[in-house]
Amino acid sequence: MKKQLALPGVKLFEPGPASENTLLLAHTEAYLEEVKRIWYFKGAALAVGGCVEAAERIARGELTNALVF
Q: Which of 63, 69, 66, 31 is closest to 47 using CA atoms?
């Protein structure tokens, strides 16, 4: 992604994981506890955190668009 990150107007943000409170907006406590034991939980929480951060930055007018991966 070096080529893409070097383009004008492109900036890389490294988000933190979504908070448990945020995850509980879409999932039950029981489900969240079950998923926490699965190997991909940390990656999934980071992906959600990235989506939330991107949406918040767009809503505040800091960004006009975002790509989360």
A: 69
Per the structure, the count of domains in the chain is 1
Please state the φ and ψ torsions of residue 45, each to the nearest 5 degrees. -65, -35
Distance CA 3, CA 16 (A): 24
- Looking at the domain assignment, is residue 57 inside a domain? yes
21 lies in a domain? yes
Q: pLDDT tens for residues 53-68?
A: 999 999 999 999 999 9
| Entry pTM | 0.82
Tokens of 55: 């949406």
* Alpha-carbon span 24 to 48, nearest angstrom: 12
Does residue 5 form part of some domain? no
